[in-house]
Design goal:
Layout lengths: L1 E5 L5 E9 L3 E2 L1 H9 L3 H7 L10 E5 L6 E8 L8 H15 L6 E5 L9 H13 L19 E5 L3 H26 L7 H9 L7 E5 L1 H6 L3 H6 L8 E8 L7 E11 L9 H4 L7 H15 L5 E11 L11 E3 L5 E3 L7 H16 L3 E6 L3 H7 L4 E5 L2 H14 L3 E3 L4 H5 L8 E2 L7 H10 L7 E5 L5 E2 L10 E2 L4 H11 L3
Parallel strand pairs: 1-7, 2-5, 2-6, 6-7, 10-11, 10-14, 13-17, 14-18, 15-16
Antiparallel strand pairs: 2-3, 4-5, 8-9, 9-11, 12-13, 15-18, 19-20
Helix pairs in contact: 3-4, 4-5, 5-10, 10-16, 11-15, 13-16
The structure holds ligand BES, manganese (II) ion and zinc ion (ZN).
Ligand BES binds next to α12.
Length: about 500
C-alpha cells in the first residue's frame, strides 16, 4: 500500500473523515455534511457512534459526495487529540478498508493537524495496519486479499507533513522488518540466514560485520557458543554500525537472537511453549529493525547493534546441565538448565558491545523469561536498569511511542540467588523472581556502563490482538521505543 501526503483531497473510493466526542464534526466532516444536505449528521444520529476513539461508522457516500463510501472515525475529546490518537485512528480506518474492495482512500486531517508530526504519525498507523505476512499462503481467497493500494493523508502544511512522513515511513519499514524476522520459521531463518538479512542493511548505509564460530572462539565467547553446540547450524554474531553522529560515543543496542529455543537437553514442555519458540529472536529482530529505521531516516547519532544468533537444540554434542563454561569476560558459569540460554548468549554479546564498541550506554532486548509474561501479561515489557536517568528516558520514550515498559527492581538479595557453590554464578535463580534473577545475571556482564534490559517476552508476539496496528502474532515490538529513545536522547 502506498501512503502519501497531499494538500488537497484527490478523488478516491473511500473518504475518511474524523469526528470528535459528542458527534462534533471535524472541518472536513462538516464540509462533506453540507455538500450532502446533512446526511452525515443524520447517519450519526441514527447510530450509536458518538466519536469515541476507535469508533467508526461506514456509509455509502450520499448524493453530493464524489466517492464510493464515507468512513467516519472517532478521535475522542477534541482537546485531548494528539499524534498517537491520529496514529490509532488511521490504523482503524485502514483496518476497515484494507480488504473491503476499496482501492484508494483519502484521510482528511485538514483543519486538525499540526505540521510537526500529526499527519506523519497517521501515516505510521496506516502503514502498521496495512502490514501482512502472507508470503507462505498460496491459496488466499480473493476476499481476504488486500484491495487498498493507495492511502492519501490530507494535511494543512503538506510540505512539512511530507517531510515528517519521509522519516516516519522509515520507522514503519523498521517495524515491518522486525515483524518479518519474528514470523519467519526457524527452518528458514537460522543464524546464518538472519546474519545475511542483517547484512542487507548495508543498502541503507549501515556497516555490518559478521563473526562466525571461529572468530567467536578466538574471543573466548564460550557462553554464547555453548548454546549452539547442539545445533547443526553455525552460531553468528552480527555487529551493525550506523555512524550518523560524528565522533560522539555510540548508543549500543544488544539483542537475543535464539532462532529456535527447544530448551536444549532440558527440552521445553509442554509442547505449546515450544511451538512459539521461532520467535525467541525477537530481541535481535527489534535491534535490527531499529537500525533499519534509524539509518533509513539518517539520524544524526551513532547507534550500534550487536545480536547473538544461535539455535538451542538437544543433541549428542549439546551442552549438559552441570556443565561449566568460561565466558569471554573470564567469569565462569555453571549451567544448571539448558533452557535458560538467552542470558548465556547475552552475557557474551554484552561483553562484546562493552569492550569492543565502548558505548556511552547499552540497551539489551530479549524474550528472556516466561516469568515476565506471568508478571505483565501482554501489556508491558519489563525494564531493568542500573541507571535511573536511563530508565526514566526509556519510560518516557515508551509512552511517546506507545510501546510501554514497566520498571522492575534489581538488588543484592536477588544477585545472591545466582551464586554457585562451584563457579562464579549459575544460570538459574531460585523459585521466585525468575525475570529479576535473569536480569541480575546480565548485570554481571555490563560493569559500570549505563545499561538497561528490556524483557520483551510479554510483547514480542501476541496470539490475539484487538489493536488494528498489530497483525496476529509478531508485533515488531521494540523498534518504535528504540527509535524514539534515539530521537529524544542521542541526536544532535
Ligand atoms: N525463551 C524463553 C523465555 C520465553 C518463554 C519467552 C515464553 C517467551 C515466551 C527462555 O529461553 C526460557 O526458556 N526461559 C526459562 C528460564 C528458566 C529455565 C529459568 C523460563 O522462562 O521458563
Ligand atoms: Mn529457553
Ligand atoms: Zn529462550
Amino acid at each position: 500500500m502506498e501512503i502519501r501526503i497531499s494538500g488537497a483531497p484527490s478523488k478516491a473510493d473511500a473518504v475518511v473523515v474524523p469526528i470528535f466526542e459528542n458527534r462534533k464534526l471535524s472541518p472536513a466532516a462538516k464540509q462533506l455534511d453540507e455538500a450532502a444536505d446533512g446526511a452525515l449528521v443524520r447517519a450519526l444520529e441514527g447510530s450509536r457512534v458518538t466519536g469515541k476513539p476507535g469508533q467508526t461508522l461506514e456509509m455509502i457516500a450520499p448524493n453530493g459526495i464524489d466517492a464510493g463510501r464515507v468512513l467516519l472515525v472517532g478521535l475522542g475529546e477534541k482537546k485531548e487529540l494528539d499524534a498517537l490518537g491520529l496514529e490509532r485512528a488511521a490504523a482503524g480506518a485502514v483496518g476497515k478498508l484494507l480488504t473491503s474492495g476499496a482501492v484508494s482512500a483519502v484521510l482528511r486531517l485538514d483543519g486538525i493537524n499540526r505540521a510537526d508530526e500529526d499527519a506523519a504519525r497517521a501515516g505510521l498507523g496506516a502503514a502498521l495496519a496495512a502490514y501482512r505476512f502472507d508470503g507462505y499462503r498460496t491459496t488466499l481467497p480473493d476476499d481476504k486479499r488486500p484491495s487498498l493500494k493507495s492511502f492519501e493523508i490530507v494535511a494543512d502544511d503538506a510540505d512539512a507533513a511530507a517531510k515528517a512522513w519521509a522519516a516516519w515511513s522509515e520507522v514503519a519499514a523498521g517495524v515491518a522488518l522486525a515483524r518479518d524476522l519474528v514470523s519467519e520459521p526457524a527452518n528458514v531463518l537460522h543464524p546464518e540466514e538472519f546474519a545475511r538479512r542483517a547484512k542487507s542493511l548495508e543498502a541503507v548505509g549501515v556497516e555490518v560485520e559478521i563473526l562466525g564460530e571461529k572468530e567467536m572462539a578466538k574471543l573466548n565467547m564460550n557462553a554464547l557458543l555453548g548454546v549452539g553446540l547442539g545445533s547443526a547450524r553455525e552460531s553468528q554474531l552480527a555487529v551493525m554500525k550506523w555512524n550518523g553522529g560524528g565522533d560522539s560515543e555510540p548508543v549500543c543496542l544488544v539483542g537475543k537472537g535464539v532462532c529456535f529455543d527447544s530448551g536444549g537437553l532440558n527440552v521445553k514442555t509442554p509442547y505449546e511453549f515450544m511451538m512459539e519458540m521461532k520467535g525467541d529472536m525477537g530481541g535481535a529482530a527489534a535491534v535490527t529493525g531499529a537500525l533499519r529505521a534509524i539509518a533509513g531516516r539518517k539520524a544524526k547519532a551513532n547507534v550500534y547493534g550487536v545480536i547473538g544468533l544461535v539455535e538451542n537444540m538437544p543433541d549428542a554434542k549439546a551442552q549438559r546441565p552441570g556443565d561449566i563454561v568460561t565466558s569471554a569476560s573470564g567469569q565462569t558459569i555453571e549451567i544448571l538448565n539448558t533452557d535458560a540460554e538467552g542470558r548465556l548468549v547475552l552475557a557474551d554479546a554484552l561483553w562484546y558491545a562493552r569492550t569492543k564498541l565502548k558505548p556511552r550506554l547499552m540497551i539489551d532486548l530479549a524474550t528472556l523469561t516466561g516469568a515476565m509474561v506471568i508478571s505483565l501479561a501482554n501489556e508491558y515489557a519489563g525494564l531493568f536498569s542500573n541507571d535511573d536517568a536511563l530508565a526514566k528516558q526509556l519510560l518516557s520514550a515508551g509512552d511517546a511511542a506507545d510501546e510501554k515498559v514497566w520498571r522492575m527492581p534489581l538488588g543484592k538479595a536477588y544477585d545472591k540467588m545466582i551464586d554457585s557453590p562451584i563457579a562464579d554464578m549459575k544460570n538459574v535463580g531460585g523459585k521466585g523472581g525468575g525475570s529479576i534473577t535473569a536480569a541480575q545475571f546480565l548485570k554481571r556482564f555490563v560493569d559500570k556502563t549505563p545499561w538497561a534490559h528490556l524483557d520483551i517476552a510479554p510483547t514480542a508476539w501476541k496470539n490475539k490482538s484487538e489493536d488494528p496496528r498489530e497483525p496476529t502474532w509478531a508485533t515488531g515490538w521494540g523498534v518504535r521505543i528504540l527509535d524514539r529513545f534515539v530521537r529524544d536522547n542521542a541526536e544532535s
